[in-house]
Amino acid sequence: MVLQLYADPITINCHKVLAALDHIGVDYKIIYVDYLAQQQKLPGYLRINPNGTIPAAVHDDLIITESNAIMQYAADISGNKGAEVYPKDLKQRAIINSWLFWEAFGWARSNYVYLVQNVLKPRRAELPDEAALAREQPRWLALANVLNNQLGKTKYMTGDTVTIADFAVMAPMHMHTLQKLPLDGLAHLKRWIADMDSVPAWRSTSAFS
After folding, report:
1. How far apart are CA 189 and CA 170, in angstroms?
2. What is the C-alpha separation between 42 and 66, in angstroms, rounded?
């Protein structure tokens, strides 16, 4: 059975998974779930993912409801190309896994503040909450400097080639210009963002390219 992906490319987590699947070359079928119309909260979808979030992947009798786990699984079922983005070596894999957790439990949340205030609110004709942005900036910069330091040592997150860690960490910034992220002084991070924006699978799966 072809992997079925319930997704809307407009979202952070869907974009990362779509980019990873295309980069790896996984055969999949996308089932569009309109995020802005809240279709992920409808009873039919909730039977697949009770969390009411997207993406979700269905492969035979397996259901995966976390974006980073979908990328891991897709890499593991995809032979040599999958091993390039998620190596079998346990030490390399541990480093990638660390960045996946780092993204999910800190980086994504911090970037989401900029997404809400500078992208979603203007879309609803609301003004950004400047106080919320000011509160978040020190946290965002602390995390961004961790990235900047890492990317001063390696071309991509864990070495010279793109891995699923790159797709995960890039995703919360996938609207970085509209998010108005405070990137001044973060030369390595800005270089990496430009590199990721030029990765064919990342660019082709963007809802905003």
Report:
1. 10
2. 18
Task: Using alpha carbons, select from 154, 166, 156 the residue that is nearest to residue 201.
Answer: 166
* C-alpha to C-alpha distances, 119 to 19, 72, 138, 192, nearest whole angstrom: 22, 30, 20, 22
Does residue 119 sit in helix, strand or coil? helix
Q: In what order do the strands lie in the sheet with 62-64?
A: 28-32, 3-7, 56-59, 62-64
Position 200 scores a pLDDT of 97
Question: Could you give the domains of the chain?
Answer: 3-84 (3.40.30.10), 87-203 (1.20.1050.10)
* Residue pLDDT, tens place only, 5-36: 999 999 999 999 999 999 999 999 999 999 99
Residue 209 has pLDDT above 60, yes or no: no
175 SS3 class = coil
Confidence band, pLDDT 50/70/90 cuts, at residue 187: very high
